């Protein structure tokens, strides 16, 4: 789900970490993996929120349609136009 620039940046960081001496790599590797996981999690959350907003907009359209139909029916029953 990551965009291309994020993937490229993470790949570059991994490449730079690989140039470090073995004893220095581990903390950086753990940190970059946590960062990648956090990025993925945030992108999934944003995707879910976007889907929820689309559904909310659709639900609101249905509610507005139903409200207008109910008002028309009420006005017809009360003899209004």
Describe what this molecule looks like in 3D.
This protein has 2 helices and no strands. The chain has one domain (4-77). The chain has helices spanning 4-18, 22-77. The protein is mainly alpha-helical and 81 residues long. The chain is rod-shaped and about 85 Å long.
**Structure classification:** mainly alpha
Q: Give the tally of structural domains.
A: 1
**What portion of the residues fall into strands of 2 or more residues?**
under 5%
Instruction: Please outline the major beta sheet.
Output: none
Low-confidence stretches: none
Mean pLDDT: 91
**Tally of DSSP β-strands:** 0
Helix count, DSSP H or I runs of 4 or more residues: 2
Observed structural traits:
81 residues, mainly alpha, 0% strand
Break the fold down into its secondary structure elements and pairings.
Elements: H1 4-18, H2 22-77
Helix pairs in contact: 1-2
Task: Give a summary of the structure in a few sentences.
By secondary structure, this protein is mainly alpha-helical.
């Amino acid at each position: 789900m990551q965009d291309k620039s994020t993937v490229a940046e993470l790949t570059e960081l991994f490449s730079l970490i690989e140039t470090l001496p073995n004893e220095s790599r581990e903390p950086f590797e753990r940190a970059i993996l946590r960062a990648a996981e956090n990025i993925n999690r945030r992108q999934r959350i944003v995707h879910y929120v976007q889907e929820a907003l689309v559904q909310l907009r659709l639900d609101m359209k249905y509610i507005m349609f139903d409200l207008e139909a109910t008002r028309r029916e009420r006005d017809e029953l009360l003899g209004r136009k």
